[in-house]
TrEMBL record:
The keyword Coiled coil applies. This is Alpha/beta hydrolase. The keyword Coiled coil applies. It comes from Amycolatopsis samaneae. Keywords: Coiled coil, Hydrolase.
Amino acid sequence: MVTWSDVTRWNPGPLAEAVGAINTAYNKLVACSDDLRDINTPYGWHGEAAGAAANKVNRVIDGLEEHAAEVASLRRAAGDVSDAIAGVQNGVKEVDTLARAQHFTIGGDGAIIDNGPPSDTPENQKQAVAEERKRTVVELKDRVEEVIRQANDIDDDFCAVLDRILSGHTIDATSNDNENTSLAAAGNSGTAMGALSVLAPPPVDAAPSMNAAWWAALSPNQRAALIKDHPELVGNRDGVKATDRSKANLNLMDRERARFTADLDQLKREDGDSDEIARVEQRLKAIESIGGMMRNPDGTLNANRQLMSLDLTGDHPKAAVANGNVDTAQHVAVFTPGMNSTVDGNMHGYVDDMDGVQRTAEKMLATQGGGSVATVTWLGYEPSSFDDPLSLAGLVTGENASFGGEKLAHFDEGINASRTTDPHMTALGHSQGSIVTGVSLTRAGTGVDDAVVFGSPGIADHFGTDNTTADLKIPQGHAYNIKAEGDPIAQWVPETWRYGRAPYAMDGMNQLSADSATGPDGTPLAGSQGHSEYTKTMPDGSDSTSKHNIAAIVAGMPQLTVAAH
């Protein structure tokens, strides 16, 4: 059983060096194939001695074939183990980095040692810091567990290869046709026997920190193999880096396009069920829409976009598309749209709107020395829709908001877990998406620092006026609401108390303007009207006040916001 102390000392160097020597020996051995094919009993030699000689030759050939397989198996295993150890080293490094940053250390047995919070922690923050440290302990335990699980998997696989070699069970060459001997063919069989397995991911309901630890402890080659061969295990796994999720989801999208196209052709040939045909056509339409979001007008892949989730199951397709690099941006915002939102309908417009928010936020940061921003449009739940009467039941039961809030919390937590440096994170929610956002923020550990809801009917999935901003697991004073003139959803629906206390009257909720105004730098800002103009850029290219305010919070510059009257 491998311990934490063991893995901190693992070094891929000696095995990597051994691969060269083993390869040299293997090449010399395979070069003997031609000589073996020339060995035969002289023509016309018969009798007992001739038979004994032929048997001896066959045993030599069989032995060399098995030896070639063993050498090739060892060469492959040594290379794979060396490569895999590089992944383990990365996993150890990430654990150590996180532990040191939070004043923890890891014992030789993998135990988490708490060295206490920073001595200069303000009194009014001590409780919040204590809660955060509890969550950090859980994350560190998850990460240590995953690194050790990977190390044990490597150790078990390597031992299995060595056991087969030492016991002579790599291949059985006695059944081969020695008239057509090929040591290279035997070596190919041995190479396949020497391959290491790739560690299976944690369960589908695992914490994002466990997914992050699993991914970090894999080598770059192992990750690339999973992205290529098993994208379904990677693309929707919260905690995996956004860049890798995007690569996997793009591969998965191509695979799903081919699958649904074949299904549709078959359904039409066989005069299949019309409802099933419509469902498959909707999936293909969604795939094409997502493809459009991920590409430039000339058809090339947009390097500024990341496909962070792709889910074609359920009643409606779901996806998450990012502008910017979520893995490296200093500021990350996750926007959840509301009712009537679909992947194949208005999501493309939302992604473009969030692109505008990203650009405005980065312009604000440029005035203070610069900074990078990424915005994510997350449609990972199924909003209610007037086109789907059955989905409207969610407005009454709150079921889709509650389920969506749980998924959104995991998504946000996954962004935080996938990074060794914590970004400044902002949750954005519009309409029904603000309810989902509110529910998600009642879960601790999302990593969200600020929240902005706009066009909001409320931020709770229950009746009553007992909810407050204190229910949101974000720093106090960091919740914001925007209500535009003529928006019935933000004005009248909150008075039903269906979704908790009205955001425009909630204690501790900062009220920001959507009216025309003048920005802090003297720039005129346009007013927004109704329910759907909060994030739009005006026809002349200028920002609305609401978009300006959203971007200021995303940039971590609340001093630039325009307060509501």
